[in-house]
Amino acid sequence: MELMKLEIVTPNGVIFDAEVKQVTLPGSEGEFGVLAHHATLVSLLEAGVIVIEKADSSEVAVAINSGYVKVDEEKTTCIVDGAVVISGDDKDLTKALEEAKALLKSAESSNTAIATAVSKVEQLAKTL
Fold first, then answer.
1. 51-88 burial, b if ≥16 CB within 10 A, otherwise e?
2. Lowest mean pLDDT across 16-25, 75-84, 105-114
3. pLDDT computed for residue 4 by the predictor
4. What DSSP line would sit under 43-99, residue for residue?
5. Nearby residues of 97 by Cβ (< 8 Å), 6 or more positions away
């Protein structure tokens, strides 16, 4: 499977920058997946969880509160207001999960969207 570059940027700097197989994003019209050579698009991102399938097939989740994404054929760039990376590599996974839940609950989205995102974070925690 071909890889694409994924970059996630917050006001504090880049929090993720790597070659990935796939990324699933919480778009304003619903979740959507992006693979290498995807058609160019720009979309708003809602509060939710970005799920990243890395080149080694491991998964990383990034909880975000809002932002937008620009997809090109070779690169996907997410510009987000706030983000917390949740990874099985984390030494303090519990702390990352609590920070992610707090970030999602502070977002100015609908209660249903926030509850769905928090539930997804909890499900991902069980698999990491």
1. bbbbeeeebbbbbbbbbebebeeeebbbebebbbbbbe
2. 105-114
3. 96
4. EEE-SEEEEEEETTS-EEEEEESSEEEEE-SSEEEEEES-EEEEETT-TTHHHHHHH
5. 86, 121, 122, 125
HSE-CB of 72 using CA atoms within 13 angstroms: 6
Tell me if 2 sits within 8 A of 36, measured CB to CB.
yes
- Is the model's pLDDT at 39 over the cut of 90? yes
Angle among Cα 29, 32, 35 to the nearest 5 degrees reads 150
Instruction: State both tokens at 102.
Output: 């707090």
Question: Between the CA of residue 102 and those of 6, 95, 106, 121, what are the distances in Å?
Answer: 25, 11, 6, 11
Using pLDDT thresholds of 50, 70 and 90, give the confidence band for residue 110. Answer: low
Average pLDDT, the chain: 86
Reported as half-sphere exposure (CB side, CA atoms, 13 A), residue 118 has a value of 16
Number of residues written out for the chain: 128
105 alpha-carbon distance from chain centroid: 16
**pTM for the complete prediction?**
0.80
